[in-house]
Amino acid sequence: MTRILLPLLLLLGTSLYAGHITEMNKKAFMHVKERADKGDTHSQFALGGMYFQGIVIDKDHKKAAEWFQKAADKGYVKAIFNLAVMYHKGDGVEEDQEKAVELFEEAADDGDHKSALHLADMYYTGNGVEQDYKKAFQWYKKAADAGYPIAQSKVGTMYKRGFGVDKDPEEARRYLEKAALQSCGEAQFELGQMYLEGDGIEVNEKEAESLLKDAYLNGKKEAKKILDEKNWN
């Protein structure tokens, strides 16, 4: 939430959520619009968000993209990320995967780890780009080392399976543990299997049982089959 948009939302109060455009809402919108027109980057980003979400005004993703672009041109990282997502999806702009990658990379290089995660997903699945596990690993690791549990789980799994990187059970365990401690069901499941099967680490069924139970509770339904087979109820 930007410095402009937060006070704006507090000002709008319940009338915003009720969907009513009151005179106060209009004044708040005009205040942001006036500052955006004068070149205030925070206001340009906030205005893009208002058009994107339909806050106070009707949704207009094309206008949202135009205002995000103005902020992005000044290096506003959140606006660059939003534009990248829009180009990736063809939302408010013509779909352009090359442009999306360029913008994600720009934001990621400027420290936006969500952009690194999106890039990694694209390369891992081949969504909009040619599938490339090596590039996926590099971007996942950047997000993982910044503390993102989903990325830590992916890095651990890729070390475990040798996708985009040489197999390394110890590194797999290390990254999966980081994600598992943050209640990532996928990581708990992968690590539980490692302890159960002795996949590069010493077998520890007690640890495997605990992890697989946690994985199931955290949405990893595949864990239920193993729990039933082992009679770990």
What can you tell me about this protein's structure?
It is elongated, with a radius of gyration of 22 Å. It is mainly α. 69% of the residues lie in helices and 0% in strands. The chain folds into three domains: 1-74; 75-143, Alpha Horseshoe (Serine Threonine Protein Phosphatase 5, Tetratricopeptide repeat); 147-233, Serine Threonine Protein Phosphatase 5, Tetratricopeptide repeat (Alpha Horseshoe). Helix 5 packs across helix 6, helix 11 (169-180) packs across helix 12 (185-197) and helix 12 runs antiparallel to helix 13 (205-217).
CATH superfamily of the largest domain: Tetratricopeptide repeat domain
Which topology of the largest domain does CATH recognise? Serine Threonine Protein Phosphatase 5, Tetratricopeptide repeat
CATH hierarchy class name of the largest domain: Mainly Alpha
The profile of the biggest β sheet is: none
Which architecture of the largest domain per CATH?
Answer: Alpha Horseshoe
Q: What's the order of the H and E elements?
A: HHHHHHHHHHHHHH
What's the topology here?
Layout: H1 5-12, H2 14-17, H3 23-37, H4 41-53, H5 61-72, H6 77-89, H7 97-109, H8 113-125, H9 133-144, H10 149-161, H11 169-180, H12 185-197, H13 205-217, H14 223-229
Helix pairs in contact: 1-3, 3-4, 4-5, 5-6, 6-7, 7-8, 8-9, 9-10, 10-11, 11-12, 12-13, 13-14
